[in-house]
Structure of Transport permease protein:
Amino acid sequence: MSMPAHPLSPGSPLSRLGWALADAWTVTLRDLNHWVLRPGTVIVGWLFPVMIVLMFGGLFGGAIDTPGGSGYFEFLMPGMFALTMLFGLESTMMAVTTDAAKGVTDRFRSLPMSSSAVVLGRCVADMLNSVVGLAVMVGAGLALGWRWHGGIGAALAAVGLLLLLRFALLWVGIFIGLVAGGPEVVTAVQILVWPVGFLSNVFVDPATMSAWLGAIAAWNPLSVTASAVRELFGNPGYGGESWIAQNAALMSVAWPLLITAVFLPLSVRTFRKLKG
């Protein structure tokens, strides 16, 4: 009788970790193969934020006063980099929900594999997708006249903050996808992505909003990441005297860590409960 590829219960913690990582990489390759077979969907996902940049920068940019009289794209692009990290939430939710609807998740449950590997594999695949999507956005920004004005170290730190935000939001998407009753629930959540994105400093100064709305916008994780990234890239930002405006760099790390601390264990625990 043949033996399973993995033992059902690896002995040492190191063995369990190796088992989980090997299974997660297998799931990652499976997700990447799907993108190779359906490149149109992936490419549209990369180009959609570029369309938003062209629409807002071209149609509305001339009507918005930017700090120091700099071009609107100099202000807009760092915010759009952050917003692109939020847009990835939708594709993550849809992928997880689709797997559940097609019975793929049930198939994973029946296999002798680590229960954390499915969500971890999805995380790795979507992070790779986000890296490419961010590179596309940077290329579009450079073509439109945006530039970073700091050193390469500051630019890499800005990219790190953006990917940290994406990592945190990815676990939100995985959790919602696991608990969603069907695609219609995901559609409802997708609609909410837009208010979250617009209620920020991505496009305009929160000071132009009513006091309570501007306060919410200033504390939005997108806003603090956009502000920190603008500073690192040397791009103009509105700033302010409030605590959150003065500590955007700190909160651009604290918010993603808090979101991850909540939703990563929730995602793994939810998948494990589904196994029962």
Summary: Confidence is low (pLDDT under 50) at residues 1-8. Residues 123 and 176 are 14 Å apart (CA to CA). Residues 13-275 form one domain. The chain has one domain: 13-275.
